[in-house]
Amino acid sequence: MALDLALYFDRINYQEARTATLETLRGLHLAHTCAIPFENLDVLLRRTIHIDDDSVFEKLVVAGRGGWCFEQNGLFRNVLAELGFEVENLAARVLLANPPQMPARTHRLTKVTIDGQAWVADVGFGGKTLPEPVRLVEGEMQPTTHGVYSFERVEHDWLLKFHAADKAINLYRFSLEPQYDSDYEAGNHYVSTWPESHFRYCLALSLYHADGTKNTLSSVGENAPVFTRAQEVYDLLQKNFNLRFDHPNHGISLDDFSAMLVRIGVIKPA
């Protein structure tokens, strides 16, 4: 389904200005992250993740689902371009889990230039995603509703950091080399099919709120919740993460959902 701005604005509950200004970019960015959740359910359901423009719009906007970076930032980039923003496709190497060697470029993000100043827009990085665009300048501490971010130059790359109470966390690094659809197709395929990809066995959802709080859910780690029934999780995701599971193409039946939870060990088989 082709891009329909009216449907998109309705999906993210956005009623403000639609001119290509920094104020608009900030408003859209926050509204998007507060309405369309990061989620990896289709990967866990062993579905193919289609990231062409029509498929992404149908899934995230029409069907009321969420998605990951290739979907989220692809949709957001298209909206910005349609509104007249100067945008450029970028890709990053994710460092959040402290990989033992330099990882491939498997994260999509967007550079937006306004009045000669470059900004980074990223609505698809899960629980550490940017709630608003951040200025692409080195060494500037940039507070947002969901924490403080900064950039550092590392060799020929830019390194994005998140500043927690007592330490700085490296999120990802990227160059300004433009990316093409084929680059994203390769990254999307790799992350969704590589046997060691944590997205293939870990439930991961995140949705921001404008007051600085967020809903997150991960099925691994010391803070992973304990569930006994699939129905409990099924209802929780729709309630807490603004999801719908009733679309004919992108919906999820309770039976399929239950089988997936058993397979990844979230609940025990009956």
From TrEMBL:
Pfam families per the UniProt record, alphabetical: Acetyltransf_2
Keyword Phosphoprotein tagged: no
Keyword line: Transferase
Single GO MF descriptor: arylamine N-acetyltransferase activity
Family named by the database record: Belongs to the arylamine N-acetyltransferase family.
UniProt-recorded name of the protein: N-hydroxyarylamine O-acetyltransferase
